[in-house]
Backbone:
């Protein structure tokens, strides 16, 4: 089935502001979204939204918790998930949203494995 794109609400056509920070499509394409829960992605979206041009922000835990309606303990878990995925850096109270790490193509993994096995088939 082919879906034809059409504006659903032309009066509310989205205009991309100059200060917009994009979210990398590889989060979906490389199935990264599946590696964290909803609270972690809510935190990520919040940090991307409030970050400056270098990805930096310095919201205190209490403020982030209030904005996201998360308990401080749950916020810490969400932050740890993003740290584990190498999507943010954190040195309280400073956050930095990081560029997504470059993914390594499967062929490179296979070449490395082949080399590790001493070139044996």
Residues:
């Amino acid at each position: 089935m082919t879906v034809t794109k059409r504006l659903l609400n032309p009066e509310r056509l989205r205009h991309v502001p100059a200060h917009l920070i994009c979210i990398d499509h590889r989060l979906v394409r490389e199935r990264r979204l599946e590696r964290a829960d909803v609270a972690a992605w809510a935190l990520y979206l919040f940090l991307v939204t409030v970050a400056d041009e270098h990805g930096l922000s310095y919201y205190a835990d209490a403020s982030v918790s209030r904005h996201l309606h998360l308990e401080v303990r749950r916020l810490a878990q969400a932050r740890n998930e993003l740290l584990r995925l190498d999507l943010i850096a954190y040195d309280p109270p400073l956050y930095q949203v990081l560029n997504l790490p470059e993914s390594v193509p499967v062929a490179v993994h296979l070449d490395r494995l082949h080399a590790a096995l001493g070139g044996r088939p």
